[in-house]
Design goal:
Length: 142
C-alpha cells in the first residue's frame, strides 16, 4: 500500500510582517510576494551564529540566536517566534513565542509577542507587551 502525503503536511499558513495578510505557502518556500501589499517577504527561518548588524531582521519563520550570536537591529519581526541564547538589541515584534535562555540578553524599546519564557539569569531592558498579535491593515478603497 502506497501512502500519499497530505496537503496539510506540505503547506503552512504564514502572515505578512508588513501588512498582516495571511497566505498559504509550501513548507519549502524561502521567500514569496505578499498578495496583500505586493512586497517581497522572507519565509525561511533565520539562524544567527555571530554578530549581525542590520536595520531590520524580518521573516515569517523563526529567528534563532545562538549562544555566540548577537543581533543589533532597529526592528526584528517574525511570525513563528524567537529563540535567543545570545544577545539582541532592538525592538521585537512576533506573533509567536519568545524564549530567552539563561545567558540571553535583550535591550530595546518594546518587545511585543504572543507569549514568553524567560530563564533565570536572562537580562531584559525595555517594555513588554504580552499577549500581542499583529494587527491586520485595512485595504485602501479606490
Amino acid at each position: 500500500m502506497v501512502r500519499m502525503k497530505t496537503k496539510a503536511a506540505t503547506r503552512k499558513m504564514i502572515r505578512c510582517y508588513f501588512c498582516g495578510h495571511e497566505l498559504e505557502v509550501s513548507v519549502k518556500t524561502m521567500s514569496t510576494t505578499c498578495p496583500g501589499c505586493n512586497k517581497a517577504i522572507k519565509v525561511e527561518d533565520v539562524v544567527v551564529k555571530t554578530y549581525l548588524p542590520v536595520n531590520d531582521l524580518q521573516t515569517c519563520g523563526k529567528i534563532k540566536i545562538t549562544k555566540r550570536g548577537r543581533v543589533a537591529a532597529r526592528l526584528l519581526q517574525c511570525g513563528e517566534g524567537i529563540e535567543c541564547e545570545g544577545s539582541v538589541e532592538g525592538e521585537i515584534e512576533t506573533d509567536g513565542h519568545v524564549k530567552l535562555g539563561p545567558k540571553a540578553s535583550w535591550k530595546g524599546k518594546t518587545l511585543r509577542c504572543g507569549s514568553i519564557d524567560i530563564a533565570v539569569g536572562a537580562q531584559i531592558i525595555g517594555e513588554m507587551k504580552i499577549p500581542w498579535k499583529r494587527p491586520k491593515t485595512k485595504k485602501k478603497s479606490k
